[in-house]
Amino acid sequence: MKPLVGSCRCGSTEIEISAAPIVTAACHCDGCRKMSSSAFSLTAMVPAPAFRVTKGDPVKGGAKGPQLDHYFCPDCMTWMFTRITGMDAFVNVRPTMFDDKNLAHPFMETMTAEKLDWVTLPVERSYTGFPPPEDFPELMQAFAAHWAEKTAGV
């Protein structure tokens, strides 16, 4: 995958990913809905070594430890990415920061026990909470095949 550069709304903070996501998702939890001011938040889990901030100095906001940290542009306060404590292998980026619209299409949805009753998403997998750890190897394999098909020729 060619590196993709994403930016906040004002452009003063930029991030880059240089590998395909591990999985894309929509989260319906109350916290994500409030953070995104929407019916759900979108995320693309990317390998941590393939993620970097290329411009600006994001600040922590929203949820700030001990379980996770949300990072924002300090100028326009766009929520750009999340780091989860103890899960250092990946970073959750907000996929709408990038021009590649494939990143924004959720493969799975999580926390559906909290979702708004009128929301219906075209996803491959759905979880009432978070996927159990034992589901991740198969989930990642299924997403990789899905991603390869979706991005073939791009």
Structure, explained:
There is one protein chain. An 8-stranded mixed β-sheet has the order 6-7-8-9-4-3-10-11. A 3-stranded antiparallel β-sheet has the order 1-2-5, with no helix packed on it. It has one domain: glutathione-dependent formaldehyde- activating enzyme (gfa) (Alpha-Beta Complex). The chain is built from 2 helices and 11 strands. With 154 residues, the chain is α+β, with helices and mostly antiparallel strands. It is globular and about 35 Å long.
Helix/strand layout:
Blueprint: E1 4-7, E2 14-17, E3 23-27, H1 30-36, E4 41-47, E5 51-55, E6 59-64, E7 68-72, E8 79-84, E9 90-93, E10 108-110, E11 125-126, H2 136-151
Parallel strand pairs: 3-10, 10-11
Antiparallel strand pairs: 1-2, 2-5, 3-4, 4-9, 6-7, 7-8, 8-9
